[in-house]
Amino acid sequence: xxxxxxxxxxxxxxxxxxxxxxxxxxxxxxxxxxxxxxxxxxxxxxxxxxxxxxxxxxxxxxxxxxxxxxxxxxxxxxxxxxxxxxxxxxxxxxxxxxxxxxxxxxxxxxxxxxxxxxxxxxxxxxxxxxxxxxxxxxxxxxxxxxxxxxxxxxxxxxxxxxxxxxxxxxxxxxxxxxxxxxxxxxxxxxxxxxxxxxxxxxxxxxxxxxxxxxxxxxxxxxxxxxxxxxxxxxxxxxxxxxxxxxxxxxxxxxxxxxxxxxxxxxxxxxxxxxxxxxxxxxxxxxxxxxxxxxxxxxxxxxxxxxxxxxxxxxxxxxxxxxxxxxxxxxxxxxxxxxxxxxxxxxxxxxxxxxxxxxxxxxxxxxxxxxxxxxxxxxxxxxxxxxxxxxxxxxxxxxxxxxxxxxxxxxxxxxxxxxxxxxxxxxxxxxxxxxx
Length: 435
Description:
With 435 residues, the chain is α/β, with parallel strands linked by helices. The protein has three domains: 4-26 and 241-382, Nitrogenase molybdenum iron protein domain (Rossmann fold), CATH 3.40.50.1980; 32-235, Rossmann fold (3-Layer(aba) Sandwich), CATH 3.40.50; 401-430, no CATH class. The chain has helices at 14-25, 32-45, 47-57, 71-80, 83-101, 143-156, 175-184, 194-203, 220-229, 254-265, 280-293, 300-310, 319-329, 362-367, 403-419, 423-430, and strands spanning 4-8, 108-111, 117-124, 127-131, 160-165, 188-191, 213-215, 234-235, 243-248, 272-277, 311-316, 333-337, 353-356, 393-400. Helix 9 links the parallel strand 7 (213-215) and strand 8 (234-235).
């Protein structure tokens, strides 16, 4: 099961753990050329390229009339989804929206005594594109991905949101995706997947409008396409496989911890699942619980590979040392499963999301609590943050100075410009001197 065992007593022990984790973090450039060709073809041929790729990889009978989802399809989808499920999706959406409303930014201005005005304006982008993966051929609709990407854009005030998702073999989208889009008030929905969908959002086609920001998860083709168009458009982040690190003491239940590790392991064979604890006895009990729980999972092969290759137990002297190694790992998801988690929360410096206590497993954040589940992976929580309303804002500086300001400070500005060899900059200021 979990074969990787480490001890962490001080930073000297980090090198071995880091070397193991870095093997997982190596970027895969194997599909770059293929994705570049897809991007070029969509930019050149537009809708025709989208239809060609969709016929080849997703829906053999796909035609131009199938590209955009019409109102009737959405209406039929809503009718197909059980009312109880619609109610759950609405409640999750409300909770996610309430959290993100608190992230709203306000433009501000500062008036100095000399009449100078400095400020910052927050403006939402005009158009955002959201990618929702098909999910097992369209049979496991990623409702949560749609909620987590669309709602921050809406809260930011984005006027137009364009949704793309790969069709099933029959050319349809899963009704849960369309019903969720309806709940959110989204109606610009296109059937396109993989790198060609990202290309359509970046360049625009005859049917799909070009956007300013692209957000949403996907496979290596989607991720590579986002990386290659970044700069032409904004993107949310380059995310790697999922990961969880749990810091636990003897107050934690081993069956809970095993279930939580498996909740990430079932995502992907590359998902990292790490337990940090000062208790060797707890490690043994969690290992036993994993052996018991894994065979009952539908995705046990994926989870088993994840645990074997990227699962780890890290033994530490105490909770303080545990927090030290957690901050070095900088995990996407961090569960603090100790008797008094609030007493040490201030020591957590690097984590995408922090789950507190024994009754707050990671799926609470994935689906329902409200904070965003699009989180930095591969130790990038050292310097980056969850997807948020800020992802869909632009920030513009505002500067106003008067003639007195130029008279008082212009020579200093001109001197700094000349230090850099920029004479025209200096003269631009000096032209405004009195006399």
